[in-house]
Specification:
This protein has 104 residues and is mainly α. The chain has one domain. 77% of the residues lie in helices and 0% in strands. The chain is built from three helices and no strands. α1 packs antiparallel against α2. The protein starts with a helix and ends with a helix.
Length: 104
Amino acid sequence: MMKNAHKIGAVFYVLWGILHIVGGAALLQQLSAEGATGVLAAIGSAVPPDELPLISGGVASSVLGYHAWNILWFGIFAVVVGVVLNWKNSPIGYWLVFTQQKQV
């Protein structure tokens, strides 16, 4: 079992990356379709969606778009590192994963 632990870890890391790719893409799609109010309704749960104020400013949309791109690109990074490096038990892949988790 320990002989294949790095492959099991790589599979879960790729799944984690795919989850973030889908989440980032969904947020970008929601932002382009409904704007910042739609994104806040999708990711927030403290305020019911019908009680959210209409957000028409560019700053809020830009910040939410930036957040969505970060989620998307971290997911792509995780898939590439998981497939290319972690599957082969590369020490570089381990350190890339470690440093990425410290920055997020």
